[in-house]
Amino acid sequence: MKYSLPKVTLALSGFLLLLSPSLFAASPAPKGVELYLISPQEGAQLKSPVRVRFGLKGMGVAPAGVRKKNTGHHHLLVDVQGLPALNQAIAKDARHLHFGGGQTEVSLKLKPGQHSLRLILGDHAHIPHNPPVISQEVNFTVR
After folding, report:
1. From CA 2, how far away is CA 118, in angstroms rounded?
2. Which end of the chain is more exposed for a tag (fewer CB within 10 A), N or C?
3. pLDDT bracket for residue 17 (50, 70, 90)
4. Which residues 6+ apart lie within 8 Å of 105 measured at CB?
5. 42/131 Cα distance (integer angstroms)
6. Sign, Cα dihedral of 88, 84, 33, 78
7. Is the pLDDT of residue 21 over 50?
8. Which helix (H) or strand (E) holds 71?
């Protein structure tokens, strides 16, 4: 049987559209989850490197790529204004740090001045949960 390229392409596109919501939909988060920064504290005066410790209540931590109910991994926003898109994978760059190995702390070398940190929990595919699990922003100064 012969297939024409346009028909095959159209069929594959339709199939991928049917799959995409289930592949890329946000994982659910249970009610009452709390994501927070243990350290640093709001308003702290610190020296670099800054030890950052993550806290999570009501869910578990699992490495990226591990699809397990009520788990996720940390993403740390460093000096980021606002939030990233909450319906797609969180960017990975110098200001959007991924902890896909399940890490719960990091030591950051930061320049002197004002800084802000915020955590977002991402699922197995780095997509924020629904509803999103986000910490309060913490502001501090590096001397």
Report:
1. 55
2. N
3. very low
4. 51, 52, 53, 54
5. 25
6. positive
7. no
8. strand 71-78
Residues 53-111 have pLDDT tens digits of 999 999 999 999 999 999 999 999 999 999 999 999 999 999 999 999 999 999 999 99
For the chain, the domain total comes to 1
Tokens of 120: 């977002």
The CATH number given to whatever domain includes residue 82 is 2.60.40.10
Helices (H), the chain: 5-24
User: In 10 A of CB 28, how many CB atoms?
Assistant: 11
Domain carrying residue 125: 5-142
Which H/E stretch holds residue 52? strand 50-57
| Amino acid making up residue 120 | I
The pTM assigned to this predicted structure is: 0.83
The two three-digit tokens of residue 124, written as one number: 């197995």
CA dist 126 and 73 (Å) reads 8
What would the two tokens of residue 23 be?
């592949």
Structure tokens at 3: 């297939």
* pLDDT exceeds cutoff 50 at 135: yes
